[in-house]
Amino acid sequence: MDLDQLRYFLRVAELRNFTRAANALHMSQPALSRSIQRLEDELGRPLFERRSRSVALTDAGTRFQAAARQITVTLDEVKAELIDDAERGRIRLGAIPTIAPFFLPGLLREFARDYPGASLLVQEDTTDNLIHRCKQGEIDLALLALPISVRYLDVEPLFDEELLLVVAHDHPLAGKRRIGIRDIKQHAFVLLDEAHCLSGNVVAFCQQRAFQPIAVERTSQIATVQELVALSHGVSMIPEMARRLDSSKRRVYRSLSGVTPKRTIAALSNPYRYQSRLLGAFRAGLRDYARGFETRGHRRPPIGRDRN
Which pLDDT tens digit goes with each residue over 30-48? Predict the structure, then answer.
């Protein structure tokens, strides 16, 4: 077996579908199937249960997946260490869905401009999955929202962000000059599903003020939350970074009076994994970018370069 076969196997195991895996790997589905078949023939055991529209790992496949991950991670780290010139290489960045589409585009543009010889791979996933991937060495850095409970990983807070109340443009609260906790207690909430930490942030804030928000609908995307709010299905709380990209006039965003709900954006990394010079430069640039992002109008400096 070779390294390519291991990577092919891991992608099929991740996507549970040969066609989707082949598309992600930029190869034909028959070629991918032949490669996996040769791997299974060499091992003498099937790694996948073939179904009509998907595949599932066999017991042998599950055991092989753990070994294949460790092998590929180790080889990647050795390669990164040997060619570590702070200009080339690859960074694997994870981010939760309530951060990725709003915070990353500008960061990725600046990284590509300043480090044309390097690549940055983005994986969007839930908090729990990103923590697991960081522990396993499958990603180098993850952008999450606190609080998180984790051992043996480094957590670096980057900036605080306000959570804004969002209501339909014709909602009774849209015209109020000051909106407090008592004003929103009686209204139904549209929230992200429980896999997303943003819902935990919102619910925790409300519970600390002695009321439990009534969630009439849950969804997996902030854009869907915004649309349901615009259709008068309920109210919600949205990160300020998502508000910046919303040009719709069908929604109104307001800060709550009194204690303002916030979340803290943080970077998560594994100190027991090899930290390349390129990753160090990226982290320095990330800190600068985060400071500029927090202050909105601040001119963002280039990532990782000498700013003197």
Answer: 999 999 999 999 999 999 9
* Residues 175 and 201 sit within 8 Å (Cβ to Cβ): no
Backbone dihedral angles phi then psi of residue 93, each to the nearest 5 degrees: -110, 130
Would you say 155 and 146 are in contact if contact means Cβ atoms under 8 Å apart?
A: yes
Phi, psi of 239 (to 5 degrees): -60, 145
CA distance 270 to 132: 11
Q: Which fold has domain 1-82?
A: Arc Repressor Mutant, subunit A (1.10.10)
Is-contact 155 142, C-beta < 8 A? no
| Tokens found for residue 76 | 């990647």
Q: pLDDT digit string (tens) for 172-211?
A: 999 888 898 888 888 889 888 876 788 888 888 888 877 7
Tokens in use for 36? 């996996």
pLDDT tens-digit map of 80-105: 667 667 777 889 999 999 999 999 99
pTM of the model: 0.69
Return the sign of the alpha-carbon dihedral for residues 295, 87, 105, 128.
negative
Q: Residue 305 carries which side chain, given as an amino acid letter?
A: R
| CATH match of 159-263 with 3.40.190.10 | yes
Backbone angles phi, psi at 14, to 5 degrees: -70, -45
CA distance 119 to 226: 33
Domain ranges in the chain are: 1-82, 159-263
Q: Supply the Cα-derived Rg of the chain in whole angstroms.
A: 22
Helix (H, G, I), strand (E, B) or coil at 122: strand
Q: CA 103, 106, 109: angle at the middle one, nearest 5?
A: 140
